[in-house]
Amino acid sequence: MNAPRHARAPAVLALALGLLQHTAPAIASIKVELTGVDDPSGAARDNVLAYLSLARYATLDDLSGDVVNRIFNRAEGEIEDALKPFGYYDPKVEASLTPDGHNWIARLSVTVGEPVKITAVNVAIAGAGADETFLRELIDASPLIVGRQLDHGAYERLKGDLQQRATANGYLDARFTTNELLVDPAHLSAIATLILDTGPRYRFGLVEIEQDAVDKDFVQRFLRFKQGDWFDSTALLRTQFALDDTQYFRIVEVLPGDRDPVTLTVPVRIDARRNKRQRYTVGVGYDSEFGPRLRLTWNDRLINSEGHRSRLQADLAETNQQLHATYVVPIGDPALEKLQFDLTATNAVLADAHVKTFEIKPSTTHIYSSWQRVAFVDLSRTESIAGGLATRDTLVVPGVSLAPVPPAYTGELASSNVAPGFYAEVLGSTTALGSGSSFLRFHLLDDWHFRIAPHWRLLLRAEIGATLAKNFDDLPVRYRFFAGGDRS
């Protein structure tokens, strides 16, 4: 006979509560205390913590006791695996797991033991690239040296670097005929063997360029390689940078084709899609020297098929208004060399001086090795009021500046630690050219960016300026140095 509905309800409720009490996990988190892994670089300790399930689960706050015990039991094996790449093949681990309320404390004391040492190294290059300096220098700089502590990472880095550098320099069939790292933990010894057969070296083959923005011969001048040169993947990357920077194209793809083992050549295809010709921008900001400012810019990226381009920029602030127009004609190597005409009109207050200037400045930019030289002539008309004295100057000021070519164009890879910003300039005039006084001005600056931590960089900047003038009071205000501003 069935029980009445109201009589069954308390029994069902009691059963549900019992099931909840039996199945509900206890809330827990884990604190990991690791000792004994104190290598100077911290790499071994970091690797142990990366391997440890206890460390990965430590931040969770909903772990059951069963889960904590399971991952704790893995700790010894995980520590052993994490230390092997650093040459420690026989570590001893003392582990304890202590409850602390609903939480747990995992104490792991490690004795790493004696490391495995390298007892023999055999690294060799065979094939056509056996005598290549760029491969030999990798071997010479390798930390794989007899007597040193075994480092799996050093072995893998050398292996990868040799393969990558051989391939990047045209040895596209390069392969390791032997790559062994034989470890004898019982005798604390290891033998490293790497034999790279480079095979033949390839050259650049036919280059196909698909674009309709500029003249065919003009775009050829942007290439950092030519048909018949040794294949070099860095040259492809530099070509990509050069074409991207023109702003003629919205998309640029520089891709090698399939290599031909018969002719030992690699064809290259370049596909570039035309960019929008006009670009307008509006910017609002604040300058510590001039206060709030408005910037209006108009770029004409491609005036004709020879790559001419122009730019018009207006900067408006309370104490500084400037209109600047630029016209650029690419010459020589069009990625780096150019004939440029600048026209600038300025109305500014500098310290206690009020200056109005109209300036025309033709310049030429040429490349010498890894240096970029700009020769210019500054033709200007300046009206200034300083200390209650009004002056007018019509000047012809020649000058020259020097700066390094960006690494992406020279073929050097940009350093992850230091990015130099060197710039030097010298200019001057004489009374014979219309100046109120003869003067010579030097300006030198540099900056360095150092990576001091994964998300931290240190910026150092130095700037020096000096002016030689017979009579400083006659020196045009616009060629004087003023301190202050947001870069001081």
Explain what the structure shows.
The protein has 488 residues and is α+β, with helices and mostly antiparallel strands. It is 20% helix and 44% strand. The protein has ten helices and 20 strands. It has helices at 5-23, 43-51, 53-57, 65-73, 75-83, 133-140, 152-168, 216-220, 233-245, 407-410; strands spanning 30-35, 92-100, 103-111, 117-126, 175-184, 189-197, 203-210, 249-256, 265-274, 278-287, 291-300, 309-317, 320-330, 338-350, 353-368, 371-386, 389-404, 423-429, 439-453, 456-469. The strands form four sheets. The protein has an eleven-stranded antiparallel β-sheet with strand order 10-11-12-13-14-15-16-17-18-19-20, with no helix packed on it. A three-stranded mixed β-sheet has the order 1-3-2. A three-stranded mixed β-sheet has the order 4-6-5, with helices on one face. A hairpin with a 2-residue loop joins β2 (92-100) and β3. It is extended. The model is unreliable at 1-26 and 412-419 (pLDDT under 50).
What's this model, at a glance?
The protein is an alpha+beta fold. The chain is built from ten helices and 20 strands. It has helices spanning 5-23, 43-51, 53-57, 65-73, 75-83, 133-140, 152-168, 216-220, 233-245, 407-410, and strands at 30-35, 92-100, 103-111, 117-126, 175-184, 189-197, 203-210, 249-256, 265-274, 278-287, 291-300, 309-317, 320-330, 338-350, 353-368, 371-386, 389-404, 423-429, 439-453, 456-469.
SSE order and pairing:
Layout: H1 5-23, E1 30-35, H2 43-51, H3 53-57, H4 65-73, H5 75-83, E2 92-100, E3 103-111, E4 117-126, H6 133-140, H7 152-168, E5 175-184, E6 189-197, E7 203-210, H8 216-220, H9 233-245, E8 249-256, E9 265-274, E10 278-287, E11 291-300, E12 309-317, E13 320-330, E14 338-350, E15 353-368, E16 371-386, E17 389-404, H10 407-410, E18 423-429, E19 439-453, E20 456-469
Parallel strand pairs: 1-3, 4-6, 7-9
Antiparallel strand pairs: 2-3, 5-6, 8-9, 10-11, 11-12, 12-13, 13-14, 14-15, 15-16, 16-17, 17-18, 18-19, 19-20
